[in-house]
Write a structure and sequence with these properties.
By secondary structure, the protein is an alpha/beta fold. The chain is built from 12 helices and 11 strands. Strand 2 and strand 3 form a beta hairpin.
Length: 329
């Protein structure tokens, strides 16, 4: 049987050292791009070969190699996850200049690491966090809504733009059912607050986090603890806001004091609140706020999509495999 020919593109580079850096050890970066694109990719000397029957895939990959090479030549450091994300970004927008995301991105420096945008949506989000006193971030898990907000909060604290950080989220089981859980109050609510602690520990040494929690510079508390307070000169983050009631959301937003910043994050497709009596709908405070506050000057709403999820390439491959199995099943 005759073998069908697959068109091939070649990209040549002028610096052997940068080309090797781009290809990765044992062509590891080429393997990543081959996995996410389905193309066959190889190298010889300072040249890379892209083979695919899909001209869009070939064009996107060639663009990725050219732009990544320019970034490396400009001194930008890239990791394995950046390589895969560049392909996804150019696939979604063939005219995108990746340097706008990496080289010109907003950098947020915390005690342990430097956090920067990994896609266009994150870049826009960080810029909004810098400019606006109240920001709503809506979208699926894995897009960096809460993580980037915590990073910005720590940066503003270090710059003395705020005096403290308050991190809060609703405990859906709060009220009647929380009392049935074993342990004291802290032990009951800690499982709900764990993701916020994880973000802090990723950006700061654990001892430093503990000291700041002890002195009150950082506060992590369930949403019920916000009632009756006025939060001046604080960076306040409400996480999982889709699980607030409209009354809770109003209570939270009206806690805003002078010199404060507020960020409200949530995913309106993952609402765990029970339906209203006699209604098929739910009483999500986040959904209500996005509707009621639409058009009010001084606040910003940023919406992430599924395409903005930042995850390990293997996680993406696993998710795609399950999606394919469900479609075929």
């Amino acid at each position: 049987m005759a073998k069908r020919f697959s068109p091939q593109e070649t990209v040549e580079f002028d610096n052997p050292s940068l080309a090797n850096h781009l290809f990765g050890p044992h062509n590891a970066n080429l393997d990543i791009l081959a996995a996410v694109s389905g193309a066959k990719i190889g190298s010889r000397g300072t040249s890379v070969f892209v083979e695919s029957e899909n001209p869009d895939v070939r064009r996107t990959l060639c663009g990725v190699f050219i732009q990544l090479y320019d970034l490396l030549r400009g001194g930008v450091e890239l990791d394995r996850q950046d390589i895969a994300r560049c392909y996804e970004m150019l696939k979604a927008d063939p005219f995108l200049n990746i340097a706008d995301v990496f080289r010109d991105a907003v950098f947020v420096r915390t005690a342990r690491k430097t956090v920067t945008a990994r896609n266009v949506a994150q870049k826009t989000y960080l810029e909004l966090l810098e400019r606006y006193e109240l920001v709503f971030a809506v979208g699926p898990a894995g897009t960096g809504k809460t993580y980037l907000a915590v990073a910005m909060a720590l940066t503003m604290l270090q710059q003395h733009r705020v005096k403290r950080i308050v991190l809060t989220r609703p405990a859906v089981e709060a009220g009647e059912r929380l009392g049935f859980l074993p342990g004291d109050l802290a032990e009951k609510v800690n499982p709900y607050l764990r993701p916020l602690y994880d973000a802090l520990h990723d950006m700061m040494p654990q001892q430093k986090v503990a000291a700041m929690l002890e002195e009150g510079t950082i506060e992590v508390a369930p949403l019920a603890f916000m009632r009756g307070r006025t939060l001046n000169n604080a960076f306040v983050i409400l996480d999982e806001a889709q699980n607030t009631t409209q009354e809770q959301m109003k209570m939270f937003l009206t806690r805003m004091g002078f010199g404060a910043r507020m960020v409200v994050t949530g995913d309106i497709t993952q609402i765990d609140l029970p339906p209203l009596p006699g209604s098929r709908g739910v009483r999500s405070g986040l959904v209500g706020a996005l509707d009621i506050l639409h058009g009010i000057p001084g606040l910003a709403v940023h919406r992430f999509s599924e395409g903005d999820i930042v995850r390990h390439p293997l996680v993406g491959a696993i998710a795609n495999a399950y999606d394919t199995a469900e479609k075929n099943g």
